[in-house]
Amino acid sequence: MSNATLGLLEALIARPSVTPGDAGCQQLIGERLQRLGFEIEAMDSGPENFRVSNLWAIRRGTAADGPVLLFAGHTDVVPPGRLEAWGSDPFVPSYREGRIYGRGAADMKGSLAAMVVAAEEFVAAHADHRGSLAFLLTSDEEGPAVDGTVVCCEQLRARGQRLDYCIVGEPTSLEAVGDMVKNGRRGSLSGRLKVKGVQGHVAYPHLARNPVHQAAAALAELVAIDWDAGNAYFLATSFQISNINAGTGAGNVIPGEMMVDFNFRFSTESTPESLKSRVHALLARHGLEYALDWTLGGEPFLTPVGTLSDAVSAAIRAETGLTTQLSTTGGTSDGRFIAKICPQVIELGPINATIHKIDEHLPVDNLEPLKNIYRRTLETLLA
Ligand SMILES: [Zn+2]
Question: Would you say the pTM of this structure is higher than 0.85?
Answer without folding.
Answer: yes
